[in-house]
Write a structure and sequence with these properties.
This protein is mostly helical. The longest helix has 39 residues.
Length: 113
């Protein structure tokens, strides 16, 4: 399924599910997309590069945390896993935005031809 299909126009769908970061960003993007300029879409497209860099930093941080012994306590592990899950979901939302913006730019380019 394309990112455009995932972020359909608001009149085509109701809001369902959990209001996590990915869902909120997806809904907002779907509602804003028709009014975004080419320059704005280019800016949103850059979020993918930022997310990739963040994933690399995240991997390095996880390795450092593991080596520090911070995963020795079950209570600590549980809290960290929830945090990591939320962080990855934020990065996932940034990648979705980048893919959506790229797709919108391609569609607009095709329409101009």
């Amino acid at each position: 399924m394309s990112t455009t299909q995932q972020a359909q126009q608001p009149e085509d769908r109701e809001i369902h599910g959990t209001a996590d970061i990915y869902s909120v960003v997806s809904e907002l993007l779907a509602r804003a997309a028709p009014g975004l300029s080419k320059e704005e879409l280019e800016w949103f497209k850059k979020s993918g590069e930022i997310a990739q860099a963040s994933f690399r930093n995240f991997a390095a941080a996880l390795k450092a945390i593991e080596q520090s012994g911070a995963f020795d306590s079950n209570k600590t592990v549980s809290r960290m896993l929830f945090f990591f899950s939320d962080y990855v979901r934020c990065l996932e939302a940034m990648i979705f935005v980048a893919d959506f913006a790229d797709e919108q730019l391609r569609i607009r380019e095709l329409m101009e031809q």
